[in-house]
Amino acid sequence: MRSESTHVDVLIIGAGLSGIGAAHHLQKAFPGRGYAILEARDAIGGTWDLFRYPGIRSDSDMHTLGYRFRPWTRAKAIADGPSILRYVRDTAAEAGIDRNIRFGHRVVGASWSGEQARWTVDTVHNGTPVRFTARFLYVCTGYYHYDAGHLPDFPGIERFRGRVVHPQHWPEDLDYAGKKVIVIGSGATAVTLVPAMTDRAAHVTMLQRSPTYILSLPAEDRIATALRRLLGARAAYPIARWKNVVVSTLLYQLSRRRPELVKSLIRKATVRQLPAGYDVDTHFKPRYQPWDQRLCLVPDGDLFAALRRGDASVVTGRIAEFTATGIRLESGEELEGDLVVTATGLRLLAFGGITLTVDGREVKLPETMAYKGMMLSGVPNFAFTIGYTNASWTLKADLVSEYVVRLLRHLGAHGYDTCVPVNDDPAVTERPLLDFDAGYVLRSVDEFPRAGSRAPWRLGMSYAHDLVNLRHGRIDDGNLRFSRLPDRALS
Question: Does the record's keyword annotation contain Flavoprotein (predicted)?
């Protein structure tokens, strides 16, 4: 039996970093309006609650990954996962946001009725269907598939007598003390795991098919720390935030315009941190250009320190098959291991796998186009958050929340019930929504909405550009269509 529906003005899906931030912006702007957050899991935190592998941490500094409205005050700017989780949960608790979260509600479908100008959202809670209705639907699910990560079909994996673990499903009882560990992968997860596991493992081998750009940064931002002492946390935070935005933007732009220079700088920094005579060309010379994929950050050079100590090693080659005692490479080399960690990537899932319907017609996401990287063509009263691939996720999440607040104010000020992006420019051609060469993106990008060849349909990756357009640009820009219900239009 379906329970009676609950109606709110805004329904947020997801209680992770984006969802809690969205709720904070809405609650502050519209203290009298009702909202709710639907969370499929039983805890706040999203990604930061899901992933429990050793050493989990941010790969962005917390002065930009943190919320604009709540300063990050801890010493470490490259923070560990538990600290980030506490930050998100404390943000929710201090603002009373946690009282508006419906835990254990997995959204399975959302249907829009133009006649009523409202969404009907169907969820499942403890096996029972529960229905919500809302004027505006705000999806903050991120784009990771929470149920399973990516696992290639490794020949002979069933013969391996040790244990195989994916980082997304790290067992609480996993004991790797004194064991030989092989970590397959070279992305952010792998370079985090390898140094973190050396404290207990006999030896950790990072087995990579090809190298990745790895950049060492201080875990503590000394400038931010000095500014906090001088100015206090609240005054120092925006300065440190903008300092890091500028530095990361300059690095990205330099990487795209002068890739050979950046490659040379990264290589020199890498050589300085590796043992003398190390085979840099084999293990630390990527085949792609900087920022074709995301740069991997290692705080205080912990990965390089583990290599210098001999607690860890890097092997580059393709896997031929698993054996009973480890992995054999196509080169013939065999790696012995007691535990294999498959840090082989993530799977993407658009909008948490929710089925969207508009006036009885199912929305096929690849046939839609993303408006300003946060709304969908032909889908009314709907917004979503997808962060930057070249900067901190929350920089974009905060801007999207601010835009949604401005949009809702515009609707209220003009008596509109509905807004929907419409692309009627035949000169706009389709592009991938995420124009990024990472494997986890390439495997799933065709299942996502499309981007366009020009603004406002192009998904930009410039915080400064978005800051101007989302925070200060016109709401009624000719690409949004606004309407009122008939009874209101006649009044």
Answer: yes
